[in-house]
Design a protein that fits this description.
The chain is of the alpha+beta class. It contains seven helices and 19 strands. The chain has a six-stranded mixed sheet, sandwiched between helices. It has a six-stranded antiparallel β-barrel with strand order 14-17-16-15-18-19. A hairpin with a 2-residue loop joins β15 and β16. α1 packs across α6.
Length: about 375
C-alpha cells in the first residue's frame, strides 16, 4: 500500500477492522464488518463513507456559466445558487468523458465533483476546452485539499442534526449549504447520495476530516451509524440503478444508451457532443441498458456475455448478489430489440448459460 494514494481517514481504517484494497490507485476499504451487514445497515439505519478520493475542481470567472454550458449535457443555466446539477461531459462522438455533479456556489463560481479515477483526465479535458475559446474562466483542481464524507441512511438526518445548529431538514434534495458549521468545522453540506437512501455529503478541509469522521461515528452510534466500505457502496448503488463510470457509462456508451436522457438537454445551446447525441436520438439507439434478475443460480459480473437463443446480444455492465432483494441481479447493455421487460435471456457464467429475466429498474426504491 506504500505507493497508493491515501485519504486523510486512512490511518483510522484499521481501528474499525477494515480490509484494504487498491481501488484505482487508492488504498481504500472494501469492507469493515462485512459487505452484507454494512449494506443492510445503510438501508435500515445509517452508514458513513469515506469518499475523499473523489475529485473536486473549481471553475470561477465571469464566463463560468457559459463555459460549463459548453462542456455539460445538462442545463447549467437553470441552476440556482445552492443547487447541484447531475450532468455529463461528452466527447464529440457522444461517448462519456465522465459523469459529475456541478455545485453552483455563486453566479460566477462552481465546484465540480468528478470520479476519482477520472480526476486528472477531467482536469486536462477542461483545460483543453478552455484553450479553444476566449473564456474568462479560472480553473483549479482542489482535490488534494478537499475531503469528502458521505452519511447515508434513514437515520442520517437525525445523526447529522446533533452536530450542527442549522436545521438541516431545510436542505432539500440536490441542494447544499456552504460553510455550515458541523462539529465546529466549516463544511459544504449537500443532499444527493449514491445509495438509494436519504443522506448528506460533507466537503471539508483535508485536515478536519479525521476528527469529523470519528465524531460522526461517536455521536451516531446510538442511531446505528457504522463505517461502510466500497463493497456495500457498490451493491447499494446497483440496487438503486445508479451508474458507475467504466461500467454503465464510458467512452463507448452514451448517456442515451444508458437511459439517462433526462440529464441531456438537446434543446439547449450547442455543447460538446450535441450533434452526435441529436443524431442518435433521431435514429433511435441500437442498444440499451436493461436490468435483469437471475432465474438460475449464479452471480453475474461485469463483461459476462448475454445471449438470446445462443446469439450474443450484449454484455453485463454490473452484477451482484443484492442483499435487500435477496437475489442475484445485474445490468446489461444489449441490442435494443431484446430489451423488453419480461424477456428471458441467458448469461454466460463460468462456461454455462444461465437463465435470467429482464425486469423493471430501479431494482430498489425507498419508500
Amino acid at each position: 500500500m506504500e505507493k497508493l494514494n491515501k485519504t486523510p481517514i486512512y490511518n483510522l481504517y484499521d481501528s474499525y477492522g477494515s480490509k484494504i484494497i487498491d481501488f484505482g490507485g487508492w488504498a481504500l476499504p472494501v469492507q469493515f464488518k462485512g459487505i452484507i451487514e454494512e449494506h443492510n445497515n445503510v438501508r435500515e439505519k445509517a452508514g458513513l463513507f469515506d469518499v475523499s478520493h473523489m475529485g473536486e475542481i473549481n471553475v470561477n470567472g465571469v464566463d463560468a456559466e457559459k463555459f460549463l454550458q459548453h462542456l455539460c449535457t445538462n442545463d447549467i443555466a437553470v441552476a440556482e445558487v445552492g443547487q447541484a446539477i447531475y450532468t455529463f461531459f461528452c466527447y464529440e462522438h457522444g461517448g462519456v468523458v465522465d459523469d459529475l455533479i456541478v455545485y453552483k456556489i455563486a453566479d460566477d463560481s462552481y465546484m465540480l465533483v468528478v470520479n476519482a479515477a477520472n480526476t486528472d483526465k477531467d482536469y486536462e479535458w477542461i483545460l483543453t476546452q478552455l484553450q479553444v475559446g476566449n473564456w474568462q474562466v479560472d480553473v483549479k483542481n482542489v482535490s488534494v485539499e478537499t475531503a469528502l464524507l458521505a452519511l447515508q441512511g434513514p437515520n442520517a438526518q437525525k445523526i447529522l442534526q446533533k452536530l450542527t445548529e442549522y436545521d438541516i431538514s431545510l436542505i432539500k434534495r440536490f441542494r447544499f449549504i456552504k460553510d455550515l458549521s458541523v462539529a465546529g468545522f466549516p463544511a459544504l453540506v449537500s443532499r444527493t447520495g449514491y445509495t438509494g437512501e436519504d443522506g448528506f455529503e460533507l466537503y471539508v478541509d483535508h485536515d478536519a476530516a479525521r476528527t469529523l469522521w470519528s465524531k460522526i461515528l461517536e455521536i451516531g452510534a446510538e442511531d446505528g451509524a457504522m463505517p461502510i466500505g466500497l463493497g456495500a457502496r457498490d451493491t447499494l448503488r446497483l440496487e438503486a440503478n445508479l451508474p458507475l463510470y467504466g461500467h454503465e457509462l464510458s467512452t463507448d456508451i452514451s448517456p442515451l444508451e444508458a437511459n439517462l436522457n433526462f440529464f441531456v438537454k438537446l434543446n439547449k445551446t450547442d455543447f460538446i457532443g450535441k450533434e452526435a447525441l441529436v443524431n442518435q436520438k433521431q435514429a433511435g439507439v441500437s442498444r440499451k441498458l436493461v436490468g435483469f434478475k437471475m432465474l438460475d443460480r449464479g452471480i453475474p459480473r461485469s463483461d459476462y456475455p448475454v445471449y438470446v437463443n445462443s446469439t450474443e446480444i450484449g454484455k453485463v455492465t454490473s452484477g451482484t448478489f443484492a442483499p435487500t432483494l435477496k437475489g442475484n441481479i445485474g445490468i446489461a447493455l444489449i441490442d435494443v430489440e431484446y430489451s423488453k421487460v419480461g424477456t428471458i435471456i441467458d448469461v454466460g457464467i463460468r462456461n454455462k448459460k444461465l437463465k435470467a429475466e429482464i425486469i423493471q429498474m430501479p431494482f430498489y426504491k425507498r419508500k
